[in-house]
Amino acid sequence: MTIWLFYLLLGVIQGFTEPIPISSSGHLVIFQELFNIQLPGLSFEIFVNFASLLAVLTIYRKDVVRLVVSLWTFLFKKDRSDDTMVDVKFIGLLLVATVPAGVLGVVFGDWIGETLSGVATVGYTLILTGLALWFIRNMRGSKGDGGITLRDAILIGLAQAAALIPGISRSGATIVMALLLGIKQETALRFSFFMFIPVSLGTILLDGPALFTNPETRELFGPLIVAFIASYILTAVSLKWFQHIMAKGELKYFSFYCWAVGILVVLFLA
């Protein structure tokens, strides 16, 4: 396998699995185990993460613009209308929800990487993800953007922190928690992916400068760009598809997939 094809496949896997509740990190671990290869380092992670971020911003561009405008008018034009206040509260709760993953990632990130990144962990956590998705498959909440509480944001943030463990899907964990808290499916989906924005930006700001000193970036710039493009396109396509799946209430199919892959991993790779 050429390095170009290798990075293309990794970009496709990362991009397609990032939005949907089947764990992108878990699938990269499985890919590594199946083909007995070493996953690329920091440069690859930053490139594909940035690509997925841009795809999310593209899909939700109207919502992003509305929130930015609302925050601007609130801060500088003293707008206190109901619609503006709902948006400002939404932004504040998003920031609160990102704190648990950030704190726990700093405290336990190295330990998780050393002890819970094996393929056996991925198999069991995929099965667990499937069970969680099955449990909430028929839930329909009533809370919209304005109904999310501080408690909701903290609990959804803790669910996102659980996804530090490979095999637990970030989108799956946050959406499951949101639906358990009585939040509407559309709002749960939007809140989940808006949580991805500050987390991803934080990763880029913290690790991005290393790109300029990392020899890997210069040596593999072409393959990295291929992975970036693949990740952007597949994230956008997968997210639009997932929105359609959520609207139809067909999360059970992701349960079946997680169970099938998780069981196969435990039986044959663990």
Automatic annotation (TrEMBL):
Catalyzes the dephosphorylation of undecaprenyl diphosphate (UPP). Confers resistance to bacitracin. Coiled coil: none annotated. It is a multi-pass membrane protein. The keyword Transcription does not apply. The chain crosses the membrane at residues 41-60, 90-109, 115-136, 148-168, 188-208, 220-239, 251-269. It holds the Pfam family BacA. The gene is uppP. Its EC number is 3.6.1.27. It catalyses: di-trans,octa-cis-undecaprenyl diphosphate + H2O = di-trans,octa-cis-undecaprenyl phosphate + phosphate + H(+). Keywords: Antibiotic resistance, Cell membrane, Cell shape, Cell wall biogenesis/degradation, Hydrolase, Membrane, Peptidoglycan synthesis, Transmembrane, Transmembrane helix. Bacitracin is thought to be involved in the inhibition of peptidoglycan synthesis by sequestering undecaprenyl diphosphate, thereby reducing the pool of lipid carrier available. It is found in: Cell membrane. It comes from the Bacteria. Belongs to the UppP family. Its main location: membrane. The keyword Cell membrane applies. This is Undecaprenyl-diphosphatase.
